[in-house]
Amino acid sequence: MSTLVLDRVSRWYGNVVAVNDVTMTVGPGVTGLLGPNGAGKSTLIAMMGGFLAPSTGTVTLDGAPVWRHPGIYRQIGLVPETEAMYDMVTGWQLVLANARLHRLADPTAAARAALETVGMTDAKDREVATYSKGMKQRVKMATALVHDPSVLLLDEPFTGMDPRQRLHLMDLLHRLGDQGRTVLFSSHILEEVEEIAGTIEVLVAGRHAASGDFRRIRRLMTERPHQYTISSSDDRRLAAAIIADGCADTVDLTAGTLAVQAPDLGAFVHALPRLAREHGVRLLEVSPADESLESVFAYLVAR
Ligand SMILES: Nc1ncnc2c1ncn2[C@@H]1O[C@H](COP(=O)(O)OP(=O)(O)OP(=O)(O)O)[C@@H](O)[C@H]1O
């Protein structure tokens, strides 16, 4: 059983702060690293795997620093996001080469076991160029698993997968987690993460925004204030009625449209048609504004 500890880890590239003062602990089981594009997930994973030095702070695995500590690589497997692979070799040759790089006692047996784990035994002798995206992903996993690491880090492993491949990978991650391995994968899709990960760590704009099980993260996201733009037969009259009723935090008419922010979604959707009816206003359109994933995440950070 292995535990990764990040202590006040930051990483910047020139002026860009990719990871900003992140402290977190990742233990056995499956953890999802959730965040929008550019949040710093890849940078964080590279530092967890010992492939990139933190600018400040430390990453340790069971107390030992991962950076510049070759012995640690025997315990960590990393599946990068990049699609690029050596197309002209077979899956078998690729996994075997990795087993040899790790100087394993029996590289052939290790390569066979790793390909079996990911369900690629039948296709192992085909050239990588002929594999589907999901098969390439599985062979990449086999190369990362060949030395039987206790920690497996995967950067956006579900990207480009069809539903069947997705289920297969979810099942595999579950199994690896159940074996007591420390498995961390990144994603920008909450649904994807909550289906498999016991624990979710949320990263937004380089910062550690939230942490917990999916129920807690969902609650944080759905409890945020909701914003709407409303179009009606008389926006001024409706705005006055909403203010008087108190079902919205803010009511704004300055941009030529009626924009409201409501703290309680359920109460607001009940109140709005009633107010419109009572004041003789016809509702033409009600649309959620600013509901992008980025804004939801930004809300978590601002808390
Ligand atoms: N080698 C680099 N040089 C300069 N800036 C970089 C480099 N790598 C990443 N960045 C910047 O650091 C920030 C975080 O990038 P990172 O790739 O870690 O995020 P991410 O959450 O993995 O995003 P994505 O899902 O889009 O890959 C971004 O602003 C990115 O442009």
From TrEMBL:
Keyword Transport applies: yes
Superkingdom of this protein's organism: Bacteria
InterPro entries, alphabetized: AAA+_ATPase, ABC_transporter-like_ATP-bd, ABC_transporter-like_CS, P-loop_NTPase
PROSITE patterns listed in its UniProt record: ABC_TRANSPORTER_1, ABC_TRANSPORTER_2
ATP-binding as UniProt keyword: yes
Domain ABC transporter, chain residue ranges per copy: 4-230
Keywords: ATP-binding, Nucleotide-binding, Transport
Gene Ontology MF term list: ATP binding
PANTHER family with a match to the protein in the record: ABC TRANSPORTER RELATED, ABC TRANSPORTER, ATP-BINDING PROTEIN
Family: Belongs to the ABC transporter superfamily.
The name this protein goes by in its record: ABC transporter ATP-binding protein
Organism: Actinotalea lenta
